[in-house]
TrEMBL record:
Residues 37-93 are annotated as: Disordered. Belongs to the bacterial ribosomal protein bL21 family. InterPro entries: bL21-like (IPR028909), bL21-like_sf (IPR036164). GO terms for cellular component: mitochondrial large ribosomal subunit. This is Large ribosomal subunit protein bL21m. Signal peptide: none annotated. Residues 53-67, 78-87 have a biased composition (Low complexity). It comes from Talaromyces stipitatus (strain ATCC 10500 / CBS 375.48 / QM 6759 / NRRL 1006). One of its GO terms (molecular function) is structural constituent of ribosome. Residues 37-46 have a biased composition (Polar residues).
Amino acid sequence: MFSRQALRGLFSVERVASQQPILSYASRACLHQASTTNSSSQNFQATPPEIPPSTSAAAVSIPPSASQTSTSPIPDATQQSTTTSTSDGHFINGIPRTKLPLPPLFDSNLKITKSLADKLPYLYTQRPHYISAHLHDRPYLLTEGDHLRLPFLMPKVKSGDILRFNRASVIGSRDYTLKGSPYIDERMYECRLRVLGVESEPLRIKEKTKRRRRHVQRIKSKHRYTILRVMEVKLKSLEELMEDGAEIIKEGTILEEQGADVIEKKDAPSYLIVFESILSVISISRL
């Protein structure tokens, strides 16, 4: 068994022996690098230094058109965006341009038959009017002041927006009815509705399962609907239609394929006719 001092001496000798070649290699590397740098500096001292080109030659080589194009101002994208935003954000009568309805496009003036022009004042004066407006090929019977709940959620509308229904098949009153073929020309009437908001139905839970299975799937649904209020149902008079450029033509000039709007007078119900006949019989018997 060696003592601690003997072991410590052996380890110190091994450390010194292992460190000596590393120091010698490092000194050799430093000497080698110094010698290479001295030789390289001696070789490169003979080469002439690089001469930068003169400013006069550079000015001659650059064409004037290139200098002009480089100094011309380029509009920033921010400036373009601000100009477009200001141009698009104009208001017309306090209403943004994006909220205004698109004007209808018609190739010709409104054409009215002689019989329609004769009966239109009777329908115009007999109020209130009802209208059968169509939305997504579904008719809605409306009068002024009614609340309409659409069977779907109308996209891109907010509460307070005004909508115009421009497709109707029937406009009528108590005794007269204006029928289209299949729709009435939208220049003859105005039907405007206001969006009140959105209404949601109560939560529905439907249980679904398959045969010979214990798992029951519960499906939850809560649909939302758009609520509208009829603000105006207006039938234009004959004078207003003539001011807009309507033309009164004969019956046979309109093509049969195109069809024409017709005003029909409603017949009295059968029970009223029977009641009037009974009253007349009673009055005759009294005489």
